[in-house]
Amino acid sequence: MLLERIKLVNFRQFRNESIQFANGENGKNVTIILGENGTGKTTFAQAFFWCLYGETEFTDKVILNRIVAREMTPENPQTVRVELSLKHGEVLYTLIREQVYRKEYSGKIKADNTTFSIARRDHTGNTEYVKKSLCEAEVKSILPKELSRYFFFDGERIERMSKDISQDKKANDFAEAVKGLLGLNAIFTAIQHFKPTSKYGVIGSY
Fold first, then answer.
1. Does 181 lie in the same domain as 114?
2. CA 65 – CA 79 distance, rounded (Å)
3. pLDDT 10s digits, 2-59
4. Is 27 left (phi over 0), alpha (psi -120 to 50) or beta?
5. Do the bridges between strand 78-88 and strand 2-11 make them parallel or antiparallel, or are there none, so unpaired?
6. What is the span of the domain harbouring residue 182?
């Protein structure tokens, strides 16, 4: 998977921001994001997770930009949107997750369910849209959620993750995610299904 671009609209402190990632042209293949504490590095990392899986690790589940929330009126709902462009194999993907927020006359803000869409463009330039019912499975084939936590995280989690792995707290999750990503689940399921009672049987010998 190669990230190409991400765009954030009204996502927490980001009202309208986008980043084009280095893609190897002119010898540039690494994108580094620096900033002081509180400038949004963690939020930026969580934007990937929300776009792909519809979840965040924020305690406050309202992800609408606070300034936008304060200025909005009941007649003008606002939309949080994260658009992610990436390349997986020979296919170019555009993933878009949106959530509409509405303000009641009492001032209370409510959120609609998120909507999620995926466009695929193959090496011939043909574009097709993944069926809504298959979008989650498509994301899983690119990067399972269990494995994503080892790719999208803020710097403060590195030490905690290393301790978890050393104590075998996350090792099983990681192993299961790798098996799924490599398509090995069917093989392991078959092995368990045909697990022989005796090593002297045909299956046991095999």
1. no
2. 10
3. 899 999 999 999 999 999 998 777 777 888 888 887 788 888 889 999 999 999 888 8
4. left
5. antiparallel
6. 156-206
